[in-house]
Amino acid sequence: MTRTVGIDDLGVYTPAHRLDLDVLARVRGVPPEKITVGLGVRQMSVTPPWEDTVTLGANAAQRLLAHGTVAREDVGMLLVATETAVDHAKPVGIFLHELLGLPSSCRTVELKHACYGGTAGLMLATEWVRSGAARGRTALVVATDIARYGPGSSAEFTQGAGAVALAIREAPRFLAIDPASGVYARNVYDFWRPLDRREALVDGKFSVYCYLDALDAALDDWARAAALPGPLFSLCDAFLYHTPFPKMAYKAHARLIAHEWRRAGRADATLAEAIEHSYAAAVDPWLAAARLVGNTYTASLYFCLASLAEQTGEQLPGRSVGLFSYGSGCCAEYFTGRFAPEAALVAGRLGLAEMLAARCPLSVEEYERCSRPPGEAVPAAGDVPAIRFLGVEGDKRRYAAAEAQP
Ligand code: CAA
């Protein structure tokens, strides 16, 4: 018997500070419309010195656990996906394990394949539960990242920071993940970060090419695996994409529709119109968070999922969604899911729009101070997150969790 497995609950977190990108564009001498229209991004979350990849992930997971739907003692596996780890050997997950008070009998590991790591975690966890090895326990998958590029580079406008925590369980109350998926992997140098560098290196235009090429190949693999009853656009109500910047999701959706039209043998005459129509209804509304948070690497696709959930609310149950995950380097996966009858309840607890609206705007000078490596990590009174980074003492990182829950 195939078990129904998927995302039972989720928690989202982004730092409490933002930079308006039209302001940064003016300071850098770039036309603001290139950023707000050309890339489609308006703001980015900025990580203050008292936050890092560990605190972003821990705060997202803490928000999930505060819902009361997952008992800490039932968590049997913790997978943390990141490409901005804090140590070459010690995994981000083991800090979360302590900060969240998880049981000692809990497999804890860090996953890396650029932005694909979060989906790798979701798939490994889903298969762990589906196989029966979980014995009724829950897997916690946390995708957490800080996107950093060189100051003054064109990629600087595609930074961001945030984390999403997913609880994976049998009979999920949020989103059942369909067993069929399409995967594609190939060694390319489109985006990378050598071990001694804090900021990523990127071959920008080539990375866009690699993303779209991987989408085509993952769709082909998915069609082989799914024993397809029809073209994708007639099967899914919504489409979510890894979103380094919102225009990328537009390019991806245009590619997906063209791909599916080709497979269905349709003539091209009305393709452009079909793309615009489908994008406006099934993609654009779910980019709301990505426009304001920026790129969150491993978490980016799941910020779109949270946005979709929050905006669709009561209409979620029974709806189907297609998800495309891309990690530079590269590995990609296309998969689908269906929202559970209780999904609206889960969505109602997310608090994402509220969190984004409450962020405090920074000047470009303040943002540049935050971008330097952290020194003394002391937040102002109103800025204290539930879990924060205290600094490094004797080469060891120190964290503190506040008594109160967020
Ligand atoms: N008004 C309106 N639009 C304007 C404009 C103006 N004044 N000036 C330019 N534009 C438009 C351009 O026409 C272009 O639109 P199209 O792509 O639709 O043609 C858009 O603005 C961007 O302009 P450019 O292509 O000239 O921008 P750029 O060369 O400065 O850099 C980028 C764009 C390559 C994406 C760069 O931001 C970058 O390197 N980003 C990081 C890499 C990245 O995100 N890659 C995505 C795929 S890889 C991935 O997804 C993994 C990951 O997370 C990193």
Q: Which features would summarize this protein structure in a list?
A:
single chain, 406 residues, alpha/beta, 14 helices, globular, binds acetoacetyl-coenzyme A
Strand order of the largest sheet: 5-4-6-7-1-8-13-12-11
**Helix and strand sequence:** EEHHEHEHEHEEEEEHHEHHHHEEHHEHEE
Q: Could you tell me which ligands this complex binds, including any ions or cofactors?
A: acetoacetyl-coenzyme A
Radius of gyration: 20 Å
- End-to-end gap: 40 Å
Q: Main beta sheet: strand number and arrangement?
A: 9 strands, mixed
Q: Mean pLDDT, nearest integer?
A: 94
- Total count of helical runs of at least 4 residues: 14
The proportion of residues in beta strands is 15-25%
Helix content: 25-40%
Short description:
It contains 14 helices and 16 strands. It is of the alpha/beta class and 406 residues long. A 9-stranded mixed β-sheet has the order 5-4-6-7-1-8-13-12-11, with helices on both faces.
Give an account of the 3D structure.
- The protein is 37% helix and 25% strand.
- With 406 residues, it is α/β, with parallel strands linked by helices.
- It has a 9-stranded mixed β-sheet with strand order 5-4-6-7-1-8-13-12-11, with helices on both faces.
- It is globular, with a radius of gyration of 20 Å.
- Bound molecules: acetoacetyl-coenzyme A.
- Acetoacetyl-coenzyme A binds at residues 31, 33-34, 37-39, 115, 154-155, 158, 190-191, 202, 204-205, 207-208, 211, 242, 244-245, 247-248, 295, 297, 326, 328.
